[in-house]
Write a structure and sequence with these properties.
Family: Belongs to the universal stress protein A family.
Order of helices and strands: EHEHEHEHHE
Radius of gyration: 17 Å
CATH topology: Rossmann fold
Protein name: Universal stress protein
Strand content: 15-25%
Strand order of the largest sheet: 3-2-1-4-5
Helix content: 40-55%
Distance between the termini: 35 Å
Largest sheet: 5 strands, parallel
InterPro entries: Rossmann-like_a/b/a_fold, Universal_stress_UspA, UspA
Pfam families: Usp
Structural class: alpha/beta
Organism: Janthinobacterium fluminis
Number of strands: 5
CATH class: Alpha Beta
CATH superfamily: HUPs
């Protein structure tokens, strides 16, 4: 049914557990996996006149975020490898993670976006916003939302 599934991660424990569920789902579908980590764009310090020497350059920031992305994606790559599923990891940069997820899924011809929900409701969801809700409202592809019943231990 699904040939290529986009699985997102933000590196959190909830996201990692969701990613493992996504890999298990992909195995049932015999689908290829595209694992995605969206890093925030570099921000120049606008509140000061001179950039402090300890502040990372844009190049240093990008290198650090590529490294962090690779670390976050490794669990998905390992899980897919153990199941014999083809998997590619990708780290991208964007101010809006939700829009980037939708765009990457479209660019890479994915059939499904598999992502988690932290399960916030009420004011928590309203104040924090929800990447998952934004993906649901912007994606023309099917989005499978995995919701954990119990929060993982820290």
């Amino acid at each position: 049914m699904y040939k290529k599934i986009l699985i997102t991660t933000d590196g959190s424990a909830v996201s990692n557990m969701t990613a493992c569920a996504g890999v298990a789902f992909a195995e049932q579908m015999h689908a290829e996996i595209l694992a995605l980590y969206v890093a925030p764009e570099y921000q120049y310090p606008v509140y000061i006149e001179i950039i402090p020497p300890s502040y990372p350059s844009e190049e240093e920031y990008r290198i650090a975020m590529q490294r962090a992305g690779a670390e976050h994606l490794q669990a998905i790559l390992d899980a897919a490898g153990k199941r014999g599923l083809p998997c590619q990891g990708l780290t991208t940069f964007a101010d809006s993670a939700a829009l980037q997820i939708v765009e990457v899924a479209k660019q890479h011809d994915c059939d499904l976006i598999f992502m988690g929900s932290h399960g916030r409701s009420g004011w928590g969801q309203l104040l924090l916003g929800s990447v998952t809700n934004k993906v649901l409202s912007h994606s023309k592809l099917p989005v499978l939302v995995h919701r954990l019943i119990k929060e993982p231990a820290a």
